[in-house]
Amino acid sequence: MAAWIYVRKVHLLANDPKSVAYQVMWNRLISVVEEQAQALVRTAFSTSVREAGDLSAGVYDVEGQMLAQAVTGTPGHVNAMADAVAHFIRRIGRDNISQGDVYITNDPWEGTGHLHDITMVSPSFHKGNLVGFFACTAHIVDIGGRGFGADAASVYEEGLYIPVMKFADAGVVDETLIRIVRGNVREPDQLIGDMYALATCNEIGHRRLIDMMTEFELSDLSDIAHFILENSRRATLDRIAALPRKSATAEMTIDGFDTPITLRVNVTIHEDRIVSNFEGTSGVDKKGINCPLVYAKAYACYALKVAIAPEIPNNAASLAPFEIKAPVDTIVNAVHPAPVALRHIVGHFVPDTVFAAFDQIVPGVVPAEGAGCLCNFQVSLRPRTDAPAPNDARRAEVLTFNSGGSGARPAYDGLNATAFPSGVMTMPVEATEHAGPVIIWRKELRPDSGGAGKHRGGLGQFMEVGAREGHEFDIQAMFDRVDHPARGRRGGNFGAATTIRRDDGVAMKGKGKQFVPHSRSVLMAFPGGAGYGPVEERAKSAIKRDLARGYISREVAASEYGLAEDEISAVLEAVLKGEDL
In what residue span(s) does the Hydantoinase B/oxoprolinase domain sit (predicted)? Predict the structure, then answer.
């Protein structure tokens, strides 16, 4: 609602009845796509969609330009999907678009970045005429191949590829496609259920759109599309025009798979656009952590948009002034057949890299570095092979989404265990354990992991994962910041690094498939966000509050924050007595 009000205030005449009507319709479209997204959440089979919200939903005009997106969803999916519908139109052909059609792909370069994302597009007809499209994307747990992980050497190993094609032709589902999918994945019922959920949520969006068009007596969306795109474009350009005409370069280093990776960007502010050029970034990796440009572009645009125009709704016009460049065969512009399964690891660090450059141009706006990529892992469970397994032992694929801490902000502490920039939710233990014979022995905040500063970084988490009696498993680790923790901004301290090991002390790698024998578990400590501003400027009341909540230990309260021993003792004694500080 705030975004709608912002555009109205800045660009519209309050006494213009037509403009007011268009504003109502615009707001209605946002509600339509949010209902579309919620329908997907309620009907999806995969926990990544139901519990984490790893999805997107949007409505498009007849040219394939995004008019509105759901609030529920991730920037990577939404902003990448903004480019995808045009590919569908081109591949299917306008003469081949019929009422009742549903189109599908998981093409990493014409979809949203890797084979584990299914994108579906449905044309919307009103009184026999094509008026627009609905699109949605969801991350599915398994697409065959090596499974979700970084171990592949090419995209051919990463799973089943579905080109842009018809899932349903004039309402008739392609049963041959269904049989091919079922024969190539480990969780066929789950995946086919997700595919039908995607198609259904588009249908929900279509129905609500037709209700709106009937109510407002619209024969097409051309006028409202022009209104949305023109006002969004002008609002974004106004924000860009207010910035200084400067250029800055920044870089950051992340773990990579076997060797570190450098992300480098030059951000230049022009009068009518912002150009982010990733020349100087590391080349394509041999393993599946490469990022197609469409996904890197999605997160680079997101970083700039939240920095200068967070209130303006996301659509084709509000994203257009952000120009993203990257040389081919850099790790942010990997082309076919590069392995890209874990493209999110690199993509999620793009905003922090862009922020580092933007902070040199407009100080005091962007946060310190955070955990960056999601702290995901997938567990492939099976009956134990070192001894007879019980009769109820079974195979299962369990994917769980988890988060480290976000970086401290210019005026606030970072958020604990929060997925920034992706925005997905951390999965509940109960939902994870319901998906298969996995046990989460421990899941709690990680004290002392947030970087110290005037504003403290958000805390990471501790997790311990094992399997039920009679099972062994492979764990696909998808972590970063093992060797390169989050860096502070404006004098803030680093956040804590990632650690991973078995409960018997065996060290484990931050990425890749690793075997865990029967009765063993994996202990993980996820990274904290970095601090913002000098630690000596942190309010003593905030330090005492952190100590009382267990966010920092008494040792850190003394060594990093300079709290006197008598003050520490007084705080801890008050906590024991249940007294307020």
Answer: 20-534
Burial of 407 (0-12, 13-18, 19+ CB in 10 A): buried
Q: Name the 3-class secondary structure at 475.
A: strand
Check whether residue 23 and residue 160 sit in a common domain.
Answer: yes
Q: Which burial class, exposed, middle or buried, applies to 577 when counting CB atoms under 10 A from its CB (0-12, 13-18, 19+)? A: exposed
Taken in order 332, 336, 340, 343, the sign of the CA dihedral is: positive
The answer to the question of residue 448 being in a domain is: yes
pLDDT at 3: 40
pTM above 0.85, yes or no: yes
In this predicted model, what pLDDT tens digit does every residue of 498-510 receive, in sequence order? 999 999 999 999 9
* Residue 572 domain flag: yes
pLDDT at 526: 98
Q: Is 346 inside a domain boundary?
A: no
Query: 175 is in which domain, residue-wise?
Result: 2-234
Mean pLDDT for the stretch of residues 236-241 = 97
Shared-domain flag, residues 463 and 549 = no
Integer Cα distance of 433 and 441 in angstroms: 10
Helix axis angle, 175-182 to 188-215, nearest 10°: 140
Least confidently predicted of 56-65, 68-77, 284-293: 68-77
Q: 65-85: buried (b, 16+ CB within 10 Å) or exposed (e) per residue?
A: bbbbbbbbbbbbbbbbbbbbb
